[in-house]
Amino acid sequence: MLAVTGLCKSFPGVRALSDVDFTAHAGEVHALVGENGAGKSTLIKVLTGVYRPDAGEVTYNGTPVRFATPLQAQQAGISTIYQEVNLVPLMSVARNLLLGREPRGRLRLIDFGRMHREADETLRSLGIRVDVRRPLRELGVGAQQMVALARAVAVDARVVIMDEPTSSLEPREVSTLFEVIRTLRERGIAVVYVSHRMEELYEICDAVTVLRDGTVVHTGRLADLDRLHLVSLMLGREIGEVRREGLTKFAGSHDAAAEPVLDAARLTVRHRLHGVSLSLRPGEVVGLGGLLGSGRSETARAIAGALPVDGGRVVVAGAPVRTGSTPAAIRAGISLLPEDRKTEGIVPGLSVRENIALAALPGLSRFGLVDDARIDRIVDTFMKRLRIRASSSHQKVSELSGGNQQKVLLARWLALHPKVLLLDEPTRGIDVGAKAEVQALVDELADEGLAVLLISSDTEELIEGSDRVVVLKDGAVVRELTGDAVTEDELMRAIAEVPEGGPHG
Amino acid sequence: MADVSVARVTVDRDRALRLLQNYGVYGGVVVLLVFNFAFTPHFASAENFRTQAVQVAPVLIVALGMALAIGTEGVDLSVGSVMALSTSLLSLYLGYGPWIATLIAVVGGILVGAANGALIAFVGVQPIVATLALMVGARGLALVLLPQLKDVRNPGMAALGSGDVLGIPYLVLIAATLALLVAFAVKRSTFGRRLLAVGDSRPAARLAGLPVRRVLIVVYVCSGALAAVAGVLATARLTASDPTSVGTLMELSAITAVVVGGTPLSGGRVRIGGTVAGAVLIQLLTTTLIKHDLPPSWTQIAQAVVIVGAVYAARERGKR
């Protein structure tokens, strides 16, 4: 139905897709999976006409095509349903469904009676039951997505691409959505389904294509691929691969104290975290494992007060911390190194010095005036200790390399003498040398008695760096690996595990 | 060889642009001064300088607050209306003496600023919309309090408007003091550092545990208070309260001074020295054209050229 062959697409400095073949057949639900940066969204954007490929061919219904704009792709029958619904929230369900194709009566006016009847019929045939006269925004997100889907089908879509459609749906809504997808499949529509949720993939998809680093590493029938194998393909790790020692700069185990310094219990954030509990002891590095979207970053952010929680509590050294407030968490001794260094970490226009001193300012000033001498001392100490390479402490932080920026952020937090350090992807996007330095530093800090939570998509780094690994899946803790069980094999097994009482158990 | 020379040319060009950006305003002021000394009769007199300085003082004070708001990636459109509110309050409460009346006028400005800040920090309204609402509201309130022009006959106010110390008018002294105070706060206080961080990258500031909301509210309160002071000074100079005309289009003059002074609208940088120079530059430009008998429309066109020039210089920096 829709196929690409030999597809290449580069962006300045990055090769997003190289030599990708992908075919979506009619009447088939095709899963497209891969970790961050694997090239899924680039592929979707090429398929829908947002990007034009550098090389390769897109064929649709057997003929080569070139979509110049998303509109052309839509008119040709390729519909995309994004996580965020792009319909008109204030208009009624029926109007949204038939937008641009409203049935007209005499005088070219909209025939509302007929419009409502037609809309109702379309939705009913897909098993969706809503009042078509109500404005769209009064519906739940799930129902809105259903309407978007119905609209896609109503405009004679032959291919429907769904990008993580279930990320904000309730379980009941998910099952309705799956009913609709099955109806589409029976009607001979090709569905491309992007998701990270293992259960969903195995429930609804027929075929699977795994992308990694811009290339296709596997494509075939999903039923022929077991879960463990799928996880290992996504992470790029062989099962039973011999662990090579000393590849990362982590020394391994630390002597951890007995009493936890951080105790997070039953953290719940709607749709994202479901009762996540974990504790950290001083001098211990705990890894957070799991696939993309499993709730790793959300857990760290919830602990650091950067993500408001609907339930749960955080206790540091025996004292409860007010959740949902970064200043409160920082006062309690929790520091978060955010995942997105460029937009949430550094303050690009300020100097290295100001960036390091930013969070510790109240302690470095008298009567609201900055004590420059003390700042200089602290900045000096940390620039030496972390080996931050900058022409001077007055250089703008945006001019530094990624690794040095990351070190500046670490210095910002260490200047506060935290008890708990949450590191979200501390080595992503930094060069090899800096990576080794950051890893060695994490080790050193743990030895000094800091409790560290480490999040990393680099499985090797996670396993070698952590004393324990808490494995998350769909926003809940599924396993905790301790002692000899801290291996890549066990991690992948934990991620692939079928939940108790699940449909495939 | 060719490569080397090309590289050197671009480096030179970069440096020239950076110089233009950092010191262009001062250069502009110097050029205008030299031009006037050479070609404008009666320019180099103490009397003329006093007039120029007194005229620029209110704009300058308002521009200081505006620079803070722009530094947080915001803007304060309500400043002109705050001046009007300030003049109304002043004339209403002048019966209690000039000090009490001034205090009440400033409190009025602080309240408007607090309302701006609360809308922006807590409700999450965009600064341009929030301050636009207060711009309309404050002017309305000013007119309700004092429907038409009223003479201000008060020896204290008259002295404030035309008195001087060692030949320097009070107005100029007050403006200079405030400029130094704000510059000091931006450079040396924790508030100043936080303001820049909030303006440069709000998510980063929030994750670093900075009190983002408090910083925003304080910024707009400062802007309101400074505008109110400007309103009091304008009233003293006119010896009349006229809420229909005081401060009209003041927000635009203030933004012009700030932008011409090299403070980028994208936030994260506040240049108080540049802002002062920007206000002076516009004032001198106007005077020069008037003294050479060019119609006021020419002044506006000249201002437009200066603004476009300043924005062009700022744009180049963003690209690098």
> In this structure, how is the largest beta sheet of chain B organized?
2 strands, antiparallel
Largest sheet of chain A: 6 strands, mixed
**Alpha-carbon distance between the termini of chain B?**
24 Å
- What fraction of residues of chain B sit in β-strands? under 5%
Order of helices and strands of chain B: HHHHHEHEEHHHHEHHH
CATH class division of chain B: Mainly Alpha
Write down the domain tally of chain A.
3
In short:
The complex is a heterodimer of chains A (505) and B (320). By secondary structure, chain A is α/β, with parallel strands linked by helices. Chain A has 17 helices and 22 strands.
Ordered list of secondary-structure elements with their pairings:
The complex is a heterodimer of chains A (505) and B (320).
Chain A: E1 2-11, E2 14-24, E3 29-33, H1 40-47, E4 55-60, E5 63-65, H2 70-76, E6 78-81, H3 93-97, H4 112-125, H5 141-154, E7 159-163, H6 171-186, E8 190-194, H7 198-204, E9 207-212, E10 215-221, H8 227-235, E11 262-269, E12 273-280, E13 285-289, H9 296-303, E14 311-316, E15 319-321, H10 326-332, E16 334-337, H11 341-345, H12 352-357, E17 365-366, E18 369-370, H13 372-385, H14 402-414, E19 420-424, H15 432-447, E20 451-455, H16 459-465, E21 468-473, E22 476-482, H17 488-496
Parallel strand pairs in A: 3-8, 3-9, 6-7, 7-8, 13-20, 13-21, 16-19, 19-20
Antiparallel strand pairs in A: 1-2, 1-4, 4-5, 9-10, 11-12, 11-14, 14-15, 17-18, 21-22
Helix pairs in contact in A: 5-6, 8-17, 14-15
Chain B: H1 2-39, H2 46-71, H3 79-92, H4 98-123, H5 127-145, E1 150-151, H6 155-162, E2 164-165, E3 168-169, H7 170-188, H8 190-200, H9 202-207, H10 212-238, E4 240-241, H11 250-260, H12 272-291, H13 296-319
Antiparallel strand pairs in B: 1-4, 2-3
Helix pairs in contact in B: 1-12, 1-13, 2-7, 2-10, 2-11, 2-12, 3-4, 3-5, 3-10, 4-5, 4-10, 6-10, 7-8, 8-10, 11-12, 12-13
